[in-house]
Amino acid sequence: MKVYDISPVLTARTAVWPGDTPLAREVLCDLARGDSVTLSTLRSTVHLGAHADGPNHYALDASGGAVGAPGIGERSLEYYLGACQVVSARVGRGERVRPEHLLGALGTIAQRRVLVRTDTFRDPTSFNEDFAALSVELVDELARRGVVTIGIDTPSVDLFASKTLEAHRAMHAHDMAILEGLVLGDVPPGTYELIALPLRLLGFDASPVRAVLRDVPGGPPAGIAVGSGA
């Protein structure tokens, strides 16, 4: 059974959202120094590498106020474990993925978890601001098809310059889960088992995940088409 590791390597060089906290390790004890154990302290944003957003990261009410949404530690693990479908989007940098960018793939979606490959954020150590994101139209269409989790191979389901976070808010309206920062460049479109469990960080707005995909018996379906960028 083939396993795809769709999490980036995490080091001090891993790019984080500008202004956020990069990964740092403080070694408190070290076998190499003669200590009885090696013991480390980790400091980092929880939106590090492949990660799951908690609803309290983005949920607002109609007047723009916080709604007391749950943190990532309160989310059901069913969002992050189970059959999923990887689809490719032929989309330009700085664009939002619309339903037509998936072309034939949209009609094949039969899983409740969907991962969107855009190939617009290829180097996890170098933050490019012109990555692609999701459109509200695509979120609404996937929700209509019963999708409960959407993942993407960029730092955010919204564009870098977005202040209104349209895709985040649309996903909250549908009670969908968000996975960001995935590495999908070597994953063929198809159906897999997703394992991307967040830590049980109660009240936190996100958690890093070790996201992997496993082939399902019989292998992923062939012939999923992709669209051409507008």
Task: Characterize the structure shown.
By secondary structure, the chain is of the alpha/beta class. The protein has one domain: Putative cyclase (Glucose Oxidase, domain 1, 3-Layer(bba) Sandwich), CATH 3.50.30.50. Helix content is 11%, strand content 24%. It contains four helices and 13 strands. The strands form three sheets. A nine-stranded mixed sheet has the order 1-13-11-5-7-9-10-4-12, with helices on one face. Strands 2-3 form a two-stranded antiparallel ribbon. Helix 4 (166-173) links the parallel strand 9 (149-152) and strand 10 (177-180). Helix 3 (136-144) runs parallel beside helix 4 (166-173). The N and C termini lie far apart (37 Å).
Give the topology, please.
Elements (H helix, E strand, L loop, with lengths): L2 E3 L18 E6 L9 E5 L7 E3 L27 E8 L7 E2 L1 H4 L1 H5 L4 E5 L15 E2 L1 H9 L4 E4 L13 H8 L3 E4 L9 E6 L10 E3 L3 E4 L15
Parallel strand pairs: 5-7, 6-8, 7-9, 9-10
Antiparallel strand pairs: 1-13, 2-3, 4-10, 4-12, 5-11, 11-13
Helix pairs in contact: 3-4
Summarize the structure.
The protein is α/β, with parallel strands linked by helices. It is 11% helix and 24% strand. Helix 3 (136-144) packs parallel to helix 4.
